[in-house]
Amino acid sequence: MNNFHPFVLPFTIGTVVLFIILFALFVKWLLQMDKTQKTTALKNIISFKTLKAVWEAVRECLFHRNIFRTNPVLGYMHLSFAFGWFLLIVIGKIETTFYSGTFWDEFWLAIFFRFFEDTSVTFSGSELFTQLMDACLLFVLSGIVLAVIKRFYSKIYGMKKTTKHTIVDKIALTSLWCIFPLRLLAESATAGIKHNGGFLTQSLGNLLVGLPLEHITLPLWWMYSIALCLFFLFMPFTRYMHIFTEMLLVFLRKWGVTENNQKTGYTNIELNACSRCGICIDVCPLNTEAGINNVQSVYFIKNTRYGTLTKEIADNCLMCGRCVQACPVGIESTLIRQIMRKKECFNNKDYYQYIPDKEEKQISEEKEVIYFAGCMSHITVSIPEAMKHIFAAANVKYWYMDENETICCGRPLMQQGLDKQAETLRQKNTEKILSSSIRTLVTSCPICYKSFTEEYHLPIEVLHHTQYIDRLIRQGRIKVNRSDIKVTYHDPCELGRGCKIYEEPRHVLHAVAELMNVKMEKENSLCCGYNLANTQLELEDQMKIRNAAINNLTAPKPDTVITSCPMCKRALQHGINVNIKDIAEIVDENIAK
Amino acid sequence: MKDFGYSISKGRTLNYDNSDFSLKKTLEHDVVSYCRCIGCGACASTCSAAKFTDFSIFKCNMLFRNAKYDELEQELSKCMLCGKCTLVCPRGVNTRGMILEMRNLIEKNKNNNE
Ligand code: SF4
Ligand code: SF4
Ligand code: SF4
Ligand code: SF4
């Protein structure tokens, strides 16, 4: 029984090289992680989390449940490739183990079994295995048919855009597409001679009998092996790298590793885990509303990975988070973008020396909360006014921290990669906040809220005013009347997807008005178009994005549209034909006297 | 806040022959709304930085047009990118994009001249 033939060499070399490259890259990336990331991962390796990660890796990397949820046809395509191929390898291996009586046979035997199979050797279940393997092959082939169709008509997948490919990608893609049809042909040709095929390969083999099979069988097996080899050799440099990297990412994430403020090995792992499925393109308002279709996560990730990132791609993004929400792999592309925007040349001076150091005024009286309206609230003054009334009605003594003059929380600078400047503002604000002994900080601006909770590390409680008003109502400190006006609610990006605050505002609104549902809400809400993270967008495009948000909010014909962000309010105000109010204003109007 | 009213600016002499206007062309291309600024001052009157120091966008604009890059570099880093100016500008100028792009261009220019 000789299980060797030179045609297995391309496959063997390809596989060995692939695993050496994979191993080297993974080790490199893991070592490149920074210290906190490493310790977090090590701390959690031996825990339940690892088991959970195994389950998630199976669910996502084999079954692609998240893609299924977004798009069943696309999900089936990924499933048939990943799971079908996996089954071919596993069942094939079991089959050869039975056949050769040992698990440690030549590792290519499972891949090229029909060629080497000695039909005089019988082993238990051989007929069943043959049929099973054919079924798996058919399963994978069905995925390939879909993939080919997708390449030419991406409409049936409900996707408006398909991603563009690099040359290397094209070679890998072509070889991938060839692998299974070639396997089918090679096995069928062999079946035509040896009669060892299943329902698929034998039927096709019988059709081929008229041809000079002795001459074409071997070339087919050679081509099959070469296709595998090409795919394996090119894989680490293409999108297909995601197949293995995604698994690594699932484990690291379950162990608690997160993106840091620096580009680390973990960032590289995230970049390589993108499958370029293109789901992020269809949810991006820049694409759907403004027709800008070269900056979305998938392109940003691709360019960052290959070192071809341009300023235009990095900067033209609202950081609205819709793509992160939709991404089946869960890649934190907005955080990576923030890292890639870092401008080291602007991080070396002392900034904002004009801001006075000391507060002359001491906060003497006992006060319950610090109120920080935020820059934007100073141009939508009705919001802090309403908050003043609410504080008064609830009999809350408060310190209006930025009543006369305000310095920014620093988040807009962070988002543009001006870390040193942001840090200076954070220090100034922190000093001021901690100069009082008040333990609760309430802010009206979701941008400030996100900054205070995630970037400041304050030792005190921070609340957005929606949360604070909700608390006042629940504690009965303010009594409100329920009016019969119909309202819809706009989830600001920073408060909703950014801080996951969806329930408190809705609870408050149910208490004061009749809240209607809109089509895109909560995680799926639309950006108002003015998100500060984008400095590239011109007014015309901002307005297009804003109009889409307005249409969504006014579709159920509400009397008033409610938001909880001064900037969203200001943005939506100009194009809308119904009332628009902040949540604080509508509460203020309905306080029971 | 600064006292409201008028004051007389210091005299300036500009030598247009010695000035380099290539950066201005680039900015006009990169931030198209830059040309729409009418110097109305709405941005400066709401500006967070202007509450503490005499910073204003139209002054920056003027310095840029006159290629006074050294002085301008100091000015531009006073901005906090808070975004109030963009929301009040009656001409829809992308003020923050303009400020950042000016900074980038000046930085690039410095490196080129070195
Ligand atoms: S970023 Fe996520 S959604 Fe976008 S292409 Fe990559 S994997 Fe798909
Ligand atoms: S964060 Fe928003 S604007 Fe940016 S790429 Fe994602 S969906 Fe598009
Ligand atoms: S508000 Fe707009 S138009 Fe007026 S000076 Fe500022 S940037 Fe120029
Ligand atoms: S973004 Fe800069 S220029 Fe505009 S208001 Fe804020 S601090 Fe002033």
What does this structure look like?
Chain A has helices at 8-32, 35-45, 48-62, 65-70, 72-100, 113-116, 126-152, 167-194, 201-208, 213-234, 242-254, 265-272, 279-283, 285-288, 297-305, 311-315, 322-326, 333-340, 382-393, 411-415, 419-434, 446-454, 465-474, 503-512, 539-554, 566-573, 583-589; strands at residues 369-372, 398-400, 440-443, 461-464, 486-490, 514-515, 560-563, 579-582. Chain A is mainly α and 593 residues long. Chain A folds into four domains: 62-237, no CATH class; 257-340, Alpha-helical ferredoxin (Fumarate Reductase Iron-sulfur Protein, Chain B, domain 2, Orthogonal Bundle); 359-471, 3-Layer(aba) Sandwich (Rossmann fold), CATH 3.40.50.1860; 481-589, Rossmann fold, CATH 3.40.50. In chain A, the strands form two sheets. In chain A, strands 2-1-3-4 form a four-stranded parallel β-sheet. In chain A, helix 1 (8-32) packs parallel to helix 10 (213-234) and helix 11 crosses helix 12 (265-272). The model of chain A has no long low-confidence stretch (mean pLDDT 91). Chain B is an all-alpha fold and 114 residues long. Chain B has one domain (21-113): Alpha-helical ferredoxin (Fumarate Reductase Iron-sulfur Protein, Chain B, domain 2, Orthogonal Bundle), CATH 1.10.1060. Helices cover 48% and strands 0% of the residues of chain B. Chain B is built from six helices and no strands. In chain B, helix 1 (22-30) packs antiparallel against helix 6 (95-113). In chain B, 36% of the residues are buried. Chains A and B meet through helix 26 of A and helix 5 and helix 6 of B. Residues 274-280, 297-298, 301, 326-329, 331, 333 of chain A line the site of one iron/sulfur cluster (SF4). One iron/sulfur cluster (SF4) is lined by residues 37-43, 57-58, 89, 91, 93, 95 of chain B.
